[in-house]
Amino acid sequence: MKKICEKLKAFFANKDYQLLFLLGFGLAALIYILIEPVETVKWWVAMLIGSLLSSGVIVAIAFGKKQNRKEKKLHAGDIVSGELGVLLLILTTLINIR
């Protein structure tokens, strides 16, 4: 249990992961906020569009970072941290159901 806590602490202490988390949530929330007021679009469609576009950007950034690293390896933490931000948007929109 102690190892798991240490790994989680190290994961969330990484500045790149924090930025990707905020980018994932922020971009998905921005797209959701821009699309949701349109009367012909349901809330879940706006959430789905925001989540998918934000997920695509996160994956593209992770692959871009892979190309710029010396070892040319894809770090799963880059994608996981961004997708946790997207998951946060999904959970907040589910809580805010009218």
Task: Describe, in plain words, how this protein is organized in 3D.
This protein has 98 residues and is mainly α. The protein has one domain. It is 81% helix and 0% strand. The protein has 4 helices and no strands. The chain has helices at 2-13, 15-35, 43-68, 76-95. Helix 2 (15-35) packs antiparallel against helix 3. The longest helix is centred in the middle third of the chain and has 26 residues, at 43-68. It is flat, with a radius of gyration of 15 Å. The chain starts with a helix and ends with a helix. The mean pLDDT is 87.
Largest sheet: none
Helix and strand sequence: HHHH
Strand content: under 5%
Radius of gyration over C-alpha positions, nearest whole angstrom: 15 Å
Number of helices in the DSSP assignment: 4
The tally of structural domains comes to: 1
Tell the overall outline.
flat
The percentage helix is over 70%
* Count of distinct strands: 0
Q: Which spans have pLDDT < 50 for at least 5 consecutive residues?
A: none
Query: What is the oligomer described by this structure?
Result: single chain
